[in-house]
Design goal:
Radius of gyration: 18 Å
Largest sheet: 2 strands, antiparallel
Shape: globular
Strand content: under 5%
Number of helices: 10
Helix content: over 70%
Number of strands: 2
Structural class: mainly alpha
């Protein structure tokens, strides 16, 4: 379920119901219910009276959370670079390599999964677990930005460049570079999201040509 969410396979109008999922997977309801609650705790889902749905964030929500992320994620990235292990470095390099392959295949879902893997890898290198846990609370925001930007090939190229620059800073164990590159990465993500949002709003406002 988490992988489906990370690949963007669950739309905002889709409801995840434990009984339906249990029947599809051929398992009992309880482990499915526990999984859905865990994903809700992680920020991937929101519970409703008729099942679980992907959280809906307004543009104001997105802007406010970007401000918070700019304040804390560069510092966390610097800490991760300082404490980076060889095992986490290999995970980062694998995520970048797989992201290139996904982009070449125009596989947006797989690209999202690679992006999520890269993010989780460097967060696992942050020794301050309270700091990492605070950042992980914004997974709904990160997912919303991915959904709103990574379908665009040009944006995926920008993201790939950002991942490569971050991986290089982590590889060199350079906290200053990791800090600055993470700040730049977040700024570019924000610009791409709101550019796409403005384009979508403009397209929706255009009169129907067929009319």
């Amino acid at each position: 379920l988490r992988a489906r969410l990370q690949r963007g396979e669950v739309g905002p109008s889709e409801r995840l119901v434990d009984l339906d999922i249990a029947a599809t997977l051929g398992v009992s309801r309880m482990p499915v219910r526990e999984a859905l609650l865990q994903l809700t705790h992680e920020g991937y889902l929101t519970s409703t009276t008729r099942g679980f749905v992907v959280p809906t964030l307004t543009p104001d929500d997105i802007a406010e959370i970007f401000e918070i992320r700019r304040l804390i994620e560069p510092r966390a990235a610097a800490n991760a670079a300082r404490d980076m292990s060889a095992a986490v470095e290999r995970r980062l390099e694998a995520a970048v390599r797989l992201a290139h392959e996904a982009d070449a295949a125009a596989d947006v879902g797989r690209f999202m999964t690679c992006n999520a893997g890269f993010r989780q890898a460097w967060l696992d290198a942050v020794r301050n677990r309270r700091l990492a846990a605070t950042i992980e609370r914004f997974v709904d925001h990160v997912q919303a930005v991915r959904f709103g930007t990574l379908g665009d090939p040009a944006t995926r190229r920008i993201v790939l460049t950002g991942l490569e620059r971050l991986a290089d800073a982590f590889r060199r164990r350079d906290p200053v570079a990791a800090h600055d590159r993470m700040a730049d990465f977040i700024t570019q993500a924000e610009a791409a999201f709101f550019r796409g949002h403005a384009d979508a709003a403009a397209a929706a406002a255009e009169p129907d040509a067929a009319a």
